[in-house]
């Protein structure tokens, strides 16, 4: 519909250009916004105000000339000029009901863009260190990232989902050593887990499993561990324990503990996400960057360009030349690449794989990390605008009005799995998707489980189930519910029907806008609007008690509403139940 309006107004503008009212070389950007009040028509356009200056005319005067030049078309019944020069457009009634034909024609494709018509986009999200189960904070990133990927796909983009597995580096060493200490404890040895080790029950379980499998094969001297830690602060004591463990176990023995911890937790993460409705195209290993030499090649390229320099035995990237607050180490004085060096190589590889846009979904605590990654892309001669980092605030969980704390190291956290088992994946995904990613979120478990209209997900799902029940009752009363696309849509037209038809028309616009702004929450807002419009319509109109042919048209409107709710819920990864 907007396309039709755009074509008609473009003709009017061309006429004014031909008459030299508007400069012929002036670029025109036509924008139509849906009006909020019915008395202002269906769409409003501010083009007269935008063109008033180059046309050297009063906006209202220019609007009048534009309306006069507007071609006659059955789509438009009336055009008004309001305020300082807004052009309000009133559409014919069949312009509203035409949406029903479009919905019946396209079915589950209604609202979606043409596949593969736009960009090739990679969305990397969650990417939590495989050092423990996913918690409810990760859940928000998972729900947002997957909903975003779905929205971008719905808008016609080619989208791939990726999880970057941090299977190298100090955090994994801390996990491996934590499992080793738990193994020694399971063997009956009195040795303390470092305060900054991983303390969750899952670590105890892995240690016990290794003790059962291997017995005393990997026992080391407790006195040596105590000696290695003595007179050292927490982090230094932990590093000393890691070094001693690697030395005493040897490469093969240490790899046993490391791989068990990594694979066990990574398998758990994969299962957890899959059961949450989140599946990835690629699980990208950080270790593969070391094994393939990509980190070394990226650092050498930066050395050759002069963007990396040596100081104190370490190699530093001149991030201050690109707006960062200080230069950053990429290779430590012991010759080991930093996490930043891995990230440089990883992001170079992302763009080298041919994505038009790479989207990173990061926790808001990574905000300061963005400039240095973009600086690295610039230094490597890549377009930093091909990387877009979207930040997600962690959700704060409340149960019974009480805040629930979370800490991965301490093991005191609510896992995503526990959340799903408590309220279900649908509720978790819908509630997570209700807010802008960067907004703070208080997650009320009691509300998410409520079976009433206070729960927004229940309210939307119930609208879908209510329509399914309506059709069950119709069939039970031997009412013909077939061939609804052939109904006489002119039978529709009361205020509630007009409101609902307008809401259904908006769906393609909402999908497009949600994709453009990376805001899947716009889908949830829209679905609540549609549900509100339908519940109001259903409560005020006795559909099955109405005589034909109006009843068939009302059933067609209900069926179209059901389809749009289904399509919208599918985009955010939530079921549309047929009964509740």
Name a few traits of the molecule.
5-stranded parallel sheet, Gyrase A, domain 2, 580 residues, alpha/beta, 20 helices, Isoleucyl-tRNA Synthetase, Domain 1, 4-stranded antiparallel sheet
Total helices: the number is: 20
CATH class of the domain at 452-571: Mainly Alpha
Q: What radius of gyration results from the CA coordinates?
A: 30 Å
Strand line-up of the largest beta sheet? 7-6-5-11-12
Class based on secondary structure composition and strand pairing: alpha/beta
Give the overall form: flat
**CATH topology label of the domain at 452-571:** Isoleucyl-tRNA Synthetase, Domain 1
Cα distance, first to last residue? 35 Å
- Report helical residue fraction: 40-55%
Range of strand content: 5-15%
